[in-house]
Design a protein that fits this description.
175 residues; mainly alpha; 6 helices
Length: 175
């Protein structure tokens, strides 16, 4: 439920950006998601089964073929990648530049890395769902640091498992 994404597909603005040369699905996933979003937001149905969207994903990635159960998070990550490529305005990609961030201010290095990433990636999906993080490696022997800035479309958030040390509802408050 991302309002700007819904509007993008319902208004059919996505049509102006379909990359039929996309390596992943040649625009098919974006077109199928547009159909799904329109149906979901039409208000005509109490429930909607998205078999066609899953079938199109399975057509282009064997992990999603057939009727076996798949991980929803994994499906969403692949869906975002497919959509980004289906709507990517960059047709001729070039290899990314090696980051040489020694002596460069983080703000400048981050901007250079983001600009390099965007030289191969320009899409409505990227604008909504991609970000950038900084990773630093420090040598335990000499203390030298290597800093890299990397684009991401999702951040894993570890969830603590429930254990006996978690607070439980107070038994005395029940009446």
């Amino acid at each position: 439920n991302t309002p700007s994404l819904n509007r993008f597909f319902i208004s059919e603005r996505y049509q102006d950006f379909i990359n039929y040369g996309s390596e992943l699905s040649h625009g098919e996933v974006a077109q199928e998601l547009a159909v799904a979003v329109k149906v979901l937001w039409s208000g005509q149905y109490r429930s909607v089964a998205l078999y066609d969207l899953k079938d199109v994903m399975g057509k282009h990635h064997n992990r999603f073929r057939g009727s076996s159960q798949q991980d929803a998070h994994e499906f969403l990550m692949f869906l975002l990648d497919f959509l980004h490529e289906d709507l990517n305005e960059v047709m001729n990609k070039k290899p990314p530049n090696e980051q040489g961030n020694d002596g460069v201010l983080d703000s400048r290095a981050a901007q250079i890395a983001w600009d390099d990433f965007k030289s191969n990636n320009r899409s409505f999906i990227l604008n909504l769902f991609w970000g950038q993080h900084k990773s630093t490696l420090r040598c335990s022997t000499c203390g030298n640091e290597s800093v890299k800035f990397e684009a991401f479309s999702h951040l894993p958030v570890p969830m603590p498992s429930r254990s006996s040390s978690w607070p439980r509802p107070c038994e005395t408050s029940k009446r």
